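Researcher: I need the complex structure. Ligand is adenine. Inputs:
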Amino acid sequence: MIIEALSVFPEVFEGYMSASIMGRAQRAGLVEFRSHDLRDWTHDRHRTVDDEPYGGGAGMLMKVPPIAEAVAALSSTPGEPSPHVVFFTPSGAPFTQRAAERLAACDRILFVCGRYEGIDERAYALADERISIGDFVLTGGELAALVVTDAVVRLIPGALGDEMSNRDESFSTEEGGGLLEYAQYTRPAEFEGAGVPEVLLSGDHARVAAWRRRDAIERTCRWRPDLIETAALTAEERAWAREYIESSEKGV
Ligand code: ADE
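Model: Output:
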């Protein structure tokens, strides 16, 4: 898999992408990450990438020509598949684990990172999709590209040391059923008076699994009731979840 970022600050990716799981995945040849300087596709002395908005208004906009030239050049590198082109903008589709799973199936992705007050609308004609990482405004798309890259790379088989650790975590469609993850504990068994649920010390795997399932449902009801609608629950679990949400709404 090849992941590329087009940015006016190509150097900001270096530290994160060479550390920990991202660095190891690259060294293992599971993913190749490249960042490109958008200014390499400008032709004036000042290497200009932005300009004032037509119609007036505050701030500067990113110009179309350097982006169009860069995306065209990076889409026709010999011997490589053409990339799935993603633009980052707060008005994109909200990023989810489902979107990460979808992107992880691509051979090559090109992330276009906006800066300043936005991008000339015509540049979006080059996008296969637009993604937002949340309802807040960043100063640029670089952090969004790193967030999405991290979520995608860790899904590549072999990227995490332990293949299992992807399976029942929060939002996973595989085994988690779209629920938040259950609570986890490690030694010591008691810390400043706080213990560990007795069942986890029992060694009874069936009871542990039942407790974890119940805890995942309960935590989802409590912190993210919006996820319950689409979660994969049995009829019995759904009835229990509804009851839980209703009783907490009543303050029971
Ligand atoms: N660029 C600025 N804010 C952003 C956000 N929330 N998501 C994606 N790209 C952005």
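Model: Summary of the prediction. Residues 88-90, 114, 132-134, 136-138, 141, 144 surround adenine (CB under 6 Å).
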